[in-house]
């Protein structure tokens, strides 16, 4: 049976690396837990690290976090749906916002619940996902400052999330200037300028991040040690906090070329025959997971000697080549994971989760 593991010691190594990096630069930070899909044993491992703030994009996950660690500040990191306002105020201490009408509803609900709700107003810096346009910023903030039971605790941005626009010194200078203009115009202090995410860490390490950026939200680099700009692993970090193990359920030597009339498979793919493969065979293994759980593009095999052949909903087929490892039925094949692969696996009810 396929299962995924979280390595407690490696998670702590990566946490300590990031915590030291941010403390050395006078930056506050939060852990993004959305990839863990609300799985409580993994959430507990993250919360046991000692972090004081967590970010998630699912209300149900924030609810679990509040149940595990009520003292931790919870941040809802996408613009709230209007139908979720009551739960946002109930389970999120802070929310990211880009619509005044939504913040007005948050204000009304916070008043009903007897709370002060914190908001971070997201600014558009070019990636064209969520964010208020710069020319509307002053009027937007002026209106929000007038709302009761709302505290504006930050200005923020996201880059590289939709169109792949990369962070740069100039873009963060722009974000910092927005914060300074708002503080000067309204005589209000904006505590956080939260422009930092995993993809921004390389800028920080080469001292190209303006001092005004004082808050980060980090998920991917914590779990994978990833330098997303240079496409490698930061020295001193662990790449495999999370690891997949898939079991071999069949090994058979079979023809390389399918036999029969070919049409598209259920995924819509049509196999193209290489005529030079006629008469050849290969040693194929079937693993006990499939497209329902993960796309093979997100798997990084530890063994570089086999190749992916294809996948159906519940089975993944690999070509073992010469089978130098001597695999047999029942053996486990280990894989490191890309971010989106771990996300889909953790969201699958069919994959067992373990802590090691």
From TrEMBL:
Gene3D superfamilies documented for this protein: Alanine racemase
Keywords: Isomerase, Pyridoxal phosphate
Needed cofactors: pyridoxal 5'-phosphate
Family annotation (InterPro entries): Ala_racemase, Ala_racemase_N, PLP-binding_barrel
UniProt keyword 4Fe-4S present: no
GO MF entries: alanine racemase activity
Entry keyword Magnesium: no
Domain Alanine racemase N-terminal: 7-225
Top enzyme class: isomerase
Entry EC no(s): 5.1.1.1
PANTHER family associated with the record: ALANINE RACEMASE, LYSINE RACEMASE
Name listed for the protein in its UniProt record: Alanine racemase
Organism per entry: Algoriphagus namhaensis
